[in-house]
Amino acid sequence: MKILFIQYGDYAEAYRRLKSGASETYRDQRRAVDYVESLTDGHEVVILVIRDGHSDDVLADGLRCLSVPYAELKRKWISAFLAREKPDAAVVITPHRAFLAALSARNIPTLPCFADTFTSAGLRAWLSNRALRRVLESPVFPCVANHNLNAARSVASDLQYPPERIVPWDWSRVRAEPTGKTGPHDPDAPTAFFAGALTVDKGVQDCLDAVARVAAAGLNLTMSFAGPGDVAAWQDAAARLGIAERVRFLGIVPNGEVRRMMREHDIMVVPSRHGYAEGLPNTIYEALAARSPLIVSDHPAFRGRLAVGTQCLQFPAGNAPALADAMTRLCRDRQLYAMLSSNAVQALDQIHVGIEWHSLVGHFLDDPHDGTGWVGRHALTALSGVGDRAVDNP
């Protein structure tokens, strides 16, 4: 069988880097890369990566990776590509409607496996959702998988897709640090930490504005930022706010180092704005595992997944004054700080919802038409309990 993966991110670069012994840059990256390679035992695997530039690399026997810019993914190109490659099955890790439609037209069994929270706010979003739903109604798609609970629910609420055909998925579980934290390491110099893409939609500007506000109020807080992006531009932005000495931009940091830094810093901030399409970020799991108290925005992907006030603090996305208030509160209220750290273990267990990614892909490849009923066993409608305490049906 020839299996086609369609995704963002540079699989070839990650494959080579991990094979050389380098560290993974996000949780479960190595496991995902290795799992895809393992499929070459009996199958041919082609990975199409959507990114700038063109490439066509044979990484190992039966494992090939191509790249193409997003702007070139027109119907004519997609049709020619599928005619040339002739895949027997596909896993599409992005809601690319044209590609999904082309796979459906060729009757190729396909697993849509997303990490996107959908919204129906506005006419354009509503029309886009309706068009995507019509494509996904094809029988070539046994289900629509999406990362964790809220993102999966948005497929039902905003795409109007049947919940019995929606499968939440997740990465492997994270082990929490055995001991909690009682307060900032140095109450006179507290520290905060951000991990993720250095973009406005990820909330970096909101963090800088919040640091400037707490500094003006007399709190000697510093903040570190780990992740890809235009470091020089953000350093300039910090300088314009007069906080250049209070922030550090570290660039891309190995995942193991990120976990260590989360533990060493006093506060974790996940400030994503509503416009940033994501499932439940790895940083939420890892911050809870580090047991450093967590401040999150009210992004739809994670709104309601944690108990505000006992498992995290929350602020309206894009509201830097509210974020600054939350930072100040955590730094000055040791009882609150200790409670959030203590409750992180329960919160970490609570947010893990869905079949693990490699098992999801395995179920699909073994049974792409759902003859064994694996979709129903793992669908939203099979989750026992309600709300945030929903768990997988055995």
| Helix and strand sequence | EHHEEEHEHEHEHEEHEHEHEHEEHHEHH
Task: Please give the radius of gyration in angstroms.
Answer: 22 Å
Low-confidence spans:
386-394
Mean pLDDT: 93
Task: Using the alpha-carbon principal axes, give the shape.
Answer: globular
- Strand residue percentage: 15-25%
The strand count comes to: 15
Structural class given helices, strands, pairing? alpha/beta
* First-residue to last-residue Cα separation: 30 Å
User: Which strand order do you get reading across the main beta sheet?
Assistant: 3-4-2-1-5-6-7-8-15
Number of helices: 14
Helix content: 25-40%
Largest sheet: 9 strands, mixed
Describe this structure in words.
- With 394 residues, this protein is an alpha/beta fold.
- The protein is built from 14 helices and 15 strands.
- It has helices spanning 11-19, 29-38, 75-85, 97-105, 123-136, 148-157, 204-216, 231-240, 255-264, 282-290, 320-332, 334-351, 357-366, 374-378, and strands spanning 2-8, 44-50, 55-60, 63-68, 89-92, 110-114, 144-147, 166-170, 191-195, 222-226, 247-249, 267-270, 294-297, 313-315, 355-356.
- The strands form two sheets. Strands 3-4-2-1-5-6-7-8-15 form a nine-stranded mixed beta sheet, with helices on both faces. It has a six-stranded parallel beta sheet with strand order 11-10-9-12-13-14, sandwiched between helices.
- α4 runs parallel beside α5, α7 packs across α11 (320-332) and α10 (282-290) crosses α12 (334-351).
- It is globular, with a radius of gyration of 22 Å.
- Mean pLDDT is 93; it is low at 386-394.
